[in-house]
What we know:
By secondary structure, the chain is of the alpha+beta class. 35% of the residues lie in helices and 28% in strands. It is built from 9 helices and 20 strands. The chain has helices at 160-165, 182-190, 195-201, 267-286, 291-314, 319-344, 347-368, 380-397, 404-420, and strands at 5-7, 13-16, 22-26, 33-37, 44-53, 58-61, 71-74, 76-82, 90-95, 102-112, 117-121, 134-137, 141-145, 148-150, 166-177, 203-209, 215-219, 224-234, 239-242, 246-248. The strands form 5 sheets. A 5-stranded mixed beta sheet has the order 1-3-10-5-8, with helices on one face. Strands 2-4-9-6-7 form a 5-stranded mixed beta sheet, with no helix packed on it. Helix 4 (267-286) packs antiparallel against helix 9 (404-420), helix 5 (291-314) packs antiparallel against helix 6 and helix 5 crosses helix 7. The longest helix has 26 residues, at 319-344. The two termini are 23 Å apart.
Amino acid sequence: MIGVTYSTGTSEQYELVANQPLLMQIEAMETGIIIKVANLSTSITFIIFQIHSQRLTLTLSLTNTYNYESTVKGNNIGLIYRVATPGSAAMVYLNNTHNATVDVLLAAFTYTANDPIPGGCSLEFPQEEAPYLKLQYSHVLTTVDFQLANLGISKDCEDSVTKNSLEYDIYLYFLKQNELGAEEYFSSLIKLLSIDSIQKFGRKIHSLHHSEKTSLAFSSYPRKGAAYAVVVRDTTLKTSAAYVPILSYSCDVIEGSTNSCADIGDVVGTVVTFLIGLLGLFMCFFGHRFFKTEMFFVGFLAMLAVSLPLFELGTQLSNEDVIVTGILLGVLSGMIWILVWVCLGIPVVSLLLTGGVLGYLFASLIFFTPFGSLDSLRNGVSYSMVFMSIILFLTAFLLPLNKLVGNMQLSVKYMHWTYRNN
């Protein structure tokens, strides 16, 4: 990996070069390790020490007594060290309490008094200054939290100058599908350590004002790594600083653990989308010859598209149970839609759901692009209104083009195949 020093050994002290990542191994049960940065410029006022481990959690502390308020434990963690005497050395302490050697990535990034302090206005994390991110995930949703920053001159967090000066840019970087190796893990994190590298390799998805919520939700893609980074900007002084990035696979890379990546498979989903793809191909060429069959599958797909996200987000059912439940409801919905056609026999009414399902698919595709990350759509009401408007527009526009339902069913299989292979 370019620009990274590799070191092994059982020494209890490692010296870092400021702003230079260090890849190293920590021996089993090695504690009280000193991580030191020397030869600092007199303009440096604080340093963000950070450590990253793929498989096992480590403990980082500002003191050798490991006080609760000055200690953090995890896989992607960091602490802010305040330089008391200009030019003096800085050090933190590291513990590996596991009976196994751990590969880690260490870095120490320096900042001046004009730079904002990431997590400097921490209210929910144990530390008064918490420059790291917290992440929680399920197989559907990943939530990332961070603490508000403070100005480098340490203004009051409630001061109007602080509130009006700071803005936050949220970046996302995807790893390759099913790439769970350590080399890919560390090389990806290295791309999100410095501000310039974050802006080069990361995809900017949001910009937040100091007064907005610092909890963000993302879709989970198990076995597809996603790294998150936050850059805080002082819009007055035109300076910036980076939080400690965090990376997740939406599963546990340790084999045999609960929710292990090795145990994750989507056999049921693959079979269902394959069958829907075959039915879509059939409808492309023979749909109107079997009109009631077409009506059944339109009703089936409409309920499936609505029920799957609702059950995934609102229940604790497994992925397989959600799919099976959606299929059962889809069958019921298809039968009801046939009954509506038999009772009414109005062609326009029968085509409304067809256009609606295709509009739902098209709207989903649009919102998966950068359009869905627009700041104006972060409000739930705005998001829902635009989404529904796209569905209604296409429903009205495509009424005379009802045969496209077959193409839509076929595209469901294509979308599933594309996701699994990218």
